[in-house]
Amino acid sequence: MNRTLSALFSALEGLLVVAIGLAIPLAPLTVLWGAQFGFAPDWLIFWRVGADIWLVGHGVDLTVTLDAATAKASGLVDAGAPFVVSIAALGFALLTVLLGRRAGRRIAETKHRLLGEIVATLVVAVLSLGISLSASQPLARPSIVQGVLCPTLVFVIGLLIARYRAVRAPAWIAGWRHETRAVVATALRGGGAAVALVMTASSLLLAVLFFVNYGQIIALYEGLHSGTVGGAALTVGQIMVLPNLVIWTAAWLVGPGFAIGTGSAVSALGTTLGPIPAIPVLGALPSGSLTFAFIGIAVPLLSGFLAGAILSRPLGERLDRVNRLPWMLAAGLGTGVVGGAVLGILAWASAGAVGPGRLQNVGPNPLQVALVAALEIGVAAVLGMAAAARNPSRTPVN
User: Fold this and answer.
1) How far apart are CA 62 and CA 345, in angstroms?
2) Is 83 helix (H, G, I), strand (E, B) or coil?
3) 30-to-47, 208, 274 alpha-carbon distances in Å
4) Mind listing the pLDDT tens digit for each residue in 179-207?
5) 46: left (phi > 0), else alpha (psi -120 to 50), else beta?
6) Distance between first and last Cα of the chain
7) CA distance 68 to 81
8) Distance between CA 247 and CA 258 in Å, rounded?
9) Residue 168: pLDDT above 70?
C-alpha cells in the first residue's frame, strides 16, 4: 500500500472514530426530534445538543446559561448566572480509546504506520474543531481549545495502547540495576492488578445497588414523564456515565467516597444528600448509615494483599536471597503508590461540575482517594509479599 492509500485509509479510520462516537447521542436525539416534536424545531438544535454531549464526554468544559424560566424552576442558587459543566461522561472517552486502539491496529497493517497515525490524529483534531465551532451558541458554549485537544488526546491514548507491545524500554532503563528493574516492574504490575480487582468489585457492587434500588429508579423515570423515546435517550445518556459511577463506587470502597453537590457526602460512614438532580440512575444511591458498610474497605486491602502474594515469588527469583527484604518492601510500597496514583487519576477524570451552585462539586476527591488507596494497597501488598515469602510453595518430591 503506497503512501497516498495509507493516508486515505488512516483518514477514514479517524473519521469513523468521530462518527461512531457522535452518533451515540445524535441518533436518539434525531429520533426524538421526529417522534416527539414532529420535525417542527430546527434539527440544528438537536445537532448542537448531541455535539455538546460528545464534547463533554471527552472532558471539554461547557459554559451554560439557563433561560429565566428554567433557572427559576431549578430552585438552585445562582442558577441564572453562567456556569461551567466540566464533568466528563467517561463512556464516550472509553469508546474513543477503544476505537483508537482498533484504528491503531488496522493502521499498523499498512506499510506506513507513523504516517497513518499522524493523518488519523489530524483528522480527529480537524473534525473536533468543526464540531466545537458548530456547537457553540449563546446558551451553551464549549471551549474551542479543549474541544480540539481533549478528543484528540483521548484518541492518541488508544493509538499508544495499540503500539504498547511494539514499544521497547528506553536505553537508560536498561542501565538500571536488575533489582531496580524487577522492583519497578513488580510495582507496575501489582498496582495495575490491584486497581483491576478494585474496579471489578465496584462494578459488581454497583450492579447489586441497581438491583436492590430498582423500584426507586423506575419511580424517577416515571416522575420525569419523558415518554418512550425520551426515556430511551435518557437511558443512553446514563449508560455513558456508567464508568463514572463505577469509579465513584471504587472511591466508596476505598473510603473517601464522593459528593453529589457541595456539602453532601456518600461514603461508608454514611450518606448526607441535599437536593440532587432527578436522574433515575441516582436512585441507586444509598441513604443514611449502612450497617457494616466499613467492610467495603476490605476490597482494596484484599486486592493489595493478593497482588503482593502473587507477585512475591517471581520477584524473589530475581533478587539476591541475602538482600531480598528491602527490595520486596520497596516493591510492596511501590504497588501502593502505583495503585493509588491510578485510582486518583480515575477519580479526577470522573469528577467535575454538572450544574450551577452546589452542583459545581460532584464526584470523589482525587487527592483523598489517591492517598488512602496508596496506603491501603501498599500496606496490604507488603503483608502479602511477607506471607508468600514465609510460606513458599514446595516442589513435590518424586
Assistant:
1) 21
2) strand
3) 8, 33, 34
4) 788 889 899 999 999 999 999 999 999 99
5) alpha
6) 58
7) 10
8) 10
9) no
Residue with the bigger pLDDT between 128 and 221: it is: 128
Residue 380 confidence (pLDDT) above 70: yes
Q: How far apart are CA 156 and CA 162, in angstroms?
A: 10
Report how far residue 103's alpha carbon sits from residue 117's, in angstroms, rounded to the nearest whole number.
9
- Is the Cβ–Cβ distance between 279 and 238 less than 8 Å? yes
The mean-pLDDT minimum among 89-93, 248-252, 289-293 falls in 289-293
Is 67 exposed, middle or buried, given 0-12, 13-18 or 19+ CB atoms closer than 10 A? exposed
Q: Where are the alpha helices (DSSP H) in 57-177?
A: 68-74, 90-108, 113-135, 144-162, 171-174
The three-state secondary structure class of 362 is strand
Q: Determine how β-strand 62-64 pairs with β-strand 140-142.
A: antiparallel
Is the pLDDT at 216 greater than 80, yes or no? yes
Q: Is 37 helix (H, G, I), strand (E, B) or coil?
A: coil
Q: What is the pLDDT of residue 313?
A: 85
Confidence of residue 72 (pLDDT cuts 50, 70, 90): low
Residue count (the chain) = 398
Tell me which residue of 319, 310, 261, 307 sits closest to 285, measured CA to CA: 261
| 296 contacts: CB under 8 Å, gap ≥ 6 | 205, 252, 253, 268
**Cell of residue 106, nine digits:** 488496522
> Is pLDDT of 397 > 80?
no
Q: CA–CA separation, 159 vs 129, rounded Å?
A: 20
Are 143 and 88 in contact, with CB atoms under 8 Å apart? no
The model's confidence at residue 335, banded by pLDDT at 50, 70 and 90, is very high
Q: Is the pLDDT of residue 383 over 60?
A: yes
Q: Give 142's strand partners.
A: 62
Helix (H) or strand (E) holding 347: helix 324-350
By three-state DSSP, how is residue 382 classified?
Answer: helix
DSSP 251-279: HHHHSS-BEESTT-EEETTEEE--S----
Residue 74 has pLDDT above 70, yes or no: no
The strand pair at 62-64 and 83-85 is best described as antiparallel
Distance CA(144)–CA(158), nearest Å, equals 22
